[in-house]
Amino acid sequence: MERVNAFLGKHLWLQFVLSILCAGTLVMLLYPGRSALSVLLRTAFVSIGGIVVVLVVRRRERRAAGGGTDSLVSLDAKLRKGEVPVDPAEREAMRALVAQRLHRTRHRVAALVFLAVLFCTVTTLVALTSGPRQTIGFALLTVVFLAWSVGNGNLQHRRLRAMQASLDGEDVPAHAHAHHTAHRRGGDA
């Protein structure tokens, strides 16, 4: 899986192509009878805004990681594994990357609530205006997407916080951290 992540991290265009193909396939399953080419072209056109956002975020992250795609992919792999960089320059790059991602996700709970309301509204409107195939499809998409968003978002946030604590020298075992916190407050643990 690490090789796949590294390969997709280095070749962002492939992530876009795969995403458009998956979305196009989903649309064709929910609304059969449309030509594959027209569905893929519409999906690609609708995806342009998201692609631009991803490219802007990626450029900022590359800058934070030292300017190169390879260094960003390397830092991202270390972040996923929880490996704290040893090299001082790499530690600074990781610190900048983690700070940038934490800043970007500071409103993640509000964003998840907004997504939940949006997806549930769309699913309800589809149920009122379309057939059972589309209703079931959108309901499944809503449940799977929201569950994945919450689970993956929480996992990424924990990884970012753990890396930030490690880089700041606060990487201590939980029982020692509880003792240290109580001691700082003036109590005994």
Annotate the secondary structure layout.
Blueprint lengths: L1 H9 L1 H19 L5 H11 L1 H17 L4 H13 L6 H17 L3 H22 L2 H36 L6 H11 L5
Helix pairs in contact: 1-5, 2-3, 6-8, 7-8
Explain the overall architecture.
The chain has 189 residues and is mostly helical. It has helices spanning 2-10, 12-30, 36-46, 48-64, 69-81, 88-104, 108-129, 132-167, 174-184. α7 packs antiparallel against α8.
Structure characteristics:
single chain, 189 residues, mainly alpha, 9 helices, 82% helix, elongated, disordered C terminus
What is the number of beta strands? 0
Overall 3D form: elongated
Main sheet attributes: strand count, strand direction, barrel closure? none
What sequence of helices (H) and strands (E) makes up the elements?
A: HHHHHHHHH
Provide a compact summary of the structure.
With 189 residues, the protein is mainly α. 82% of the residues lie in helices and 0% in strands. The chain is elongated.
